[in-house]
Amino acid sequence: MATKLKKLVSDLSYIGPKRVMRGDLSDAHLEGVVFAPTGRTSVPTVIVIPDWLTPVGAYHELARHLASWGMACVVPKLKNNGLNDAADMTEQVAALVQTLRGVQLGNGTAQLDGDKVALLGHGLGGAVVAETAAKGVPLKAVVAAYPTEASPSPLEYTVRATVPALVITPEFPPLLSVDVSEDFAHSWGASVVMRKVPGCTRMGMTGNSLLERFGLSETNDKKPLRAQTALMTGYLWYQLTGEKDFKGFAALDSDIAGTEVVLTEQQENDDAAPKRSKRPFARLVR
Fold first, then answer.
1. Locations of Basic residues compositional bias (predicted)?
2. Any idea what the CATH number is for the domain that residue 195 is in?
């Protein structure tokens, strides 16, 4: 099993085997892009919720990657009425989930499976993920990558979440935002896996950090970013399809190259608790 997981991590680090088509959300009267594998069967859907001030185009590479592995990836352009306002964005995402049920793309060459939807929230999008998951929107799972504080606070909703979550926490405390990833995972109301990816940051999530935008970065090491992409792809595919070979992406004890598990307080307590003996009770005889 460990060998199979290692190969999957390696494979998922790169573009997948599926041919990918690109479209927009104009038929749904929305702004944004859709990347989907070609074919006439319904495919699971991932909705990417962008970070504050991060353009939709910054997620094209990630969306194409997910689509190449069999998932339609929708990146909507959401309206944000305030600096850290997540409430209005949550309403838009909830409406989008309903709108995308059964939607056909490319004259029927690709169809979204409305019963297999996951959210991937980045930064402020992570706060939107929490509120959406707590409001009963039909989801299979969520990924919260470097979730930040917002209004209302995502920590008001995490305890009421009922779907599995992968939380990606930064290696070091950020300088320009209030990271809530650890408290986010500690209070999540359903099964949760928290991992950090050394070498990756919130601003570098899209593969285009602030330093790189201004040509000031001296590193071209894409290895950590590939590990992060493989982690998210494998986790989402397992939660959306239940394919057993991918179960390790949702397990706390899996060794996923380039990533490290961070246990929540509850998981630490469970791990420290004495294991119950598996020996059957002896039968009482006269």
1. 275-286
2. 3.40.50.1820
Q: Which has the closest alpha carbon to 93: 128, 130, 140, 143?
A: 128
Do the beta carbons of residue 123 and residue 164 sit within 8 Å? no
The CA-atom distances, in angstroms, between 34 and each of 38, 43, 118, 177, 245 are 12, 13, 14, 29, 27
Q: Is residue 285 part of a domain?
A: no
Provide mean pLDDT across the span 243-250: 97
| 1: its two tokens | 């099993």
> Residue 81 carries which DSSP code?
-
What was the pLDDT predicted at 53? 84
**188: containing domain:** 1-263
Q: Where are the alpha helices (DSSP H) in the chain?
A: 2-12, 60-68, 87-99, 124-134, 181-186, 210-213, 223-241, 265-272
Q: What is the mean pLDDT of residues 261-279?
A: 78
**Overall number of domains in the chain:** 1
Q: Residue 219: what pLDDT?
A: 47
In a domain, 274, yes or no: no
Q: Which two tokens stand for residue 75?
A: 């990146």
Asked if residue 199 belongs to a domain, the reply is yes
Residue 286 falls inside a structural domain: no
- Please give the C-alpha separations between residue 276 and each of 160, 191, 280, in angstroms, as whole numbers: 30, 21, 11
**Cβ–Cβ < 8 Å for 72, 105:** yes
Dist. CA 39–CA 41, nearest whole Å: 6
Other beta carbons within 10 Å of 226: 21
Tens digits of residue pLDDT in 49-93? 999 888 999 999 999 999 999 999 999 999 887 667 889 899 999
What is the structure's pLDDT at 176?
Answer: 67
| Helix, coil or strand: residue 141 | strand
CB atoms within 10 A of CB 72: 29
The DSSP letter of residue 149 is -
